[in-house]
Amino acid sequence: MFTVQEISALGNALNVTFGKSSDTLKVTHSFQGDRLDLKISQIVHFSSEQSLRDQVRNLADISNDIFTDALKKVKGDFKESAGRALKVKELTRDDDVELISATSNSPRKIAYYRSFLKLEIS
């Protein structure tokens, strides 16, 4: 279980909004008890199913790298603030595509790509 100081250190490590420049893909988080959920969202424009598949495959690789970098930073910041290592166990990793705009008049379609990573932390 986390102490109040460790929860504060983890919250500070996860807070990436204040004073940071915007990136094309940002990691958002949800922290409850011993579970940390990370999410990345991106808008995808495509005209064919094959184009969507190629973009999703590319975004899955990119989101994996972003999750890895974000976890490395959080672990480093937590260790610096709390004085101990943060242990992380991956529970699930999933991605999702949600169609948000398609018309019969235009071949261009728009969708949300979301990637989720659920972790158990201690």
CATH architecture field of the domain at 28-72 and 86-121 = 2-Layer Sandwich
Q: Residue share in helices?
A: 25-40%
Low-confidence stretches: none
Instruction: Please give the order of strands in the largest beta sheet.
Output: 1-2-4-3
Written overview of the protein:
The chain is about 35% helix and about 35% strand. The protein is elongated, with a radius of gyration of 17 Å. It has a domain at about 30-70 and about 85-120: GMP Synthetase, Chain A, domain 3 (2-Layer Sandwich), CATH 3.30.300. It has two helices and four strands; from the N terminus they run αββαββ.
Question: What is the strand and helix layout of this fold?
Answer:
Blueprint: H1 4-14, E1 27-32, E2 35-46, H2 49-82, E3 88-101, E4 109-121
Antiparallel strand pairs: 1-2, 2-4, 3-4
Features:
single chain, alpha+beta, GMP Synthetase, Chain A, domain 3, four-stranded antiparallel sheet, 37% strand
Overview in brief:
37% of the residues lie in helices and 37% in strands. The protein is an alpha+beta fold.
